[in-house]
TrEMBL record:
Domain of life: Bacteria
Name of the protein in question: Anti-sigma F factor
InterPro entries xrefs: Anti-sigma-factor_SerPK (IPR050267), Anti-sigma_F (IPR010194), HATPase_C_sf (IPR036890), HATPase_dom (IPR003594)
Organism from which the protein derives: Sporosarcina ureae
HAMAP family: Anti_sigma_F (MF_00637)
Keyword Transferase appears in the UniProt entry: yes
Catalytic activity: L-seryl-[protein] + ATP = O-phospho-L-seryl-[protein] + ADP + H(+); L-threonyl-[protein] + ATP = O-phospho-L-threonyl-[protein] + ADP + H(+)
Enzyme class: transferase
Pfam families referenced in this protein's UniProt entry, alphabetically: HATPase_c_2 (PF13581)
Gene3D superfamilies per UniProt: Histidine kinase-like ATPase, C-terminal domain
UniProt keyword terms in alphabetical order: ATP-binding, Kinase, Nucleotide-binding, Serine/threonine-protein kinase, Sporulation, Transferase
Gene: spoIIAB
EC code(s) of this entry: 2.7.11.1
Record domain Histidine kinase/HSP90-like ATPase: where: 35-140
Function per UniProt: Binds to sigma F and blocks its ability to form an RNA polymerase holoenzyme (E-sigma F). Phosphorylates SpoIIAA on a serine residue. This phosphorylation may enable SpoIIAA to act as an anti-anti-sigma factor that counteracts SpoIIAB and thus releases sigma F from inhibition.
Length: 148
């Protein structure tokens, strides 16, 4: 099965739930296990939250764009913002690093996305924004997987 979708929304925190739910519905035909679904929703949540909070500082004016494709049992997704960009990607991907300690951010977003996905790439340019691309492979549907 092949499918594709694009969703754009304002950079406000409430829209993280919109993105998470829309993408959860998008992958529903893959009949993911509960673990796969939970991991996927977490990846989406972390990537979108980063764009809203770090890319745009919740400005409520700028747009976050999410693009996803399904090819067989693999989902590829990009979350794009045209915000501040990341000064040092390697540092930003270090566990516990955060630029927003005053907001009680844990600094674990990229670490979580990396551990739950089957591949992640971050492209960023200061002043021009960030594109986070990840892939998630879903297991074949069997009677046993339906029972999990």
């Amino acid at each position: 099965m092949k499918n594709e979708m694009t969703l754009s929304f304002l950079a406000i925190e409430q829209n993280e739930a919109l993105a998470r739910m829309a993408l959860t519905c998008f992958i529903a035909p893959l009949d993911p296990t509960l673990d796969e679904l939970s991991e996927f929703k977490t990846i989406v949540s972390e990537a979108v939250t980063n764009a809203i909070i770090h890319g745009y500082e919740c400005d409520g004016k700028s747009m976050v764009k999410v693009h996803a494709t399904i090819d067989d049992r693999s989902v590829k997704m990009t979350v794009t913002d045209e915000g501040m960009g990341i000064f040092d990607i390697e540092q930003a991907m270090e566990p516990m690093f955060t630029t927003k300690p005053q907001m009680e951010r844990s600094g674990m977003g990229f670490t979580i996305m990396e551990s739950f996905s089957d591949g992640i790439r971050v492209d960023s340019t200061l002043g021009n924004g960030t594109i986070v691309t990840f892939e998630k492979n879903f297991s074949p549907v069997t009677e046993v997987s339906r029972m999990r």
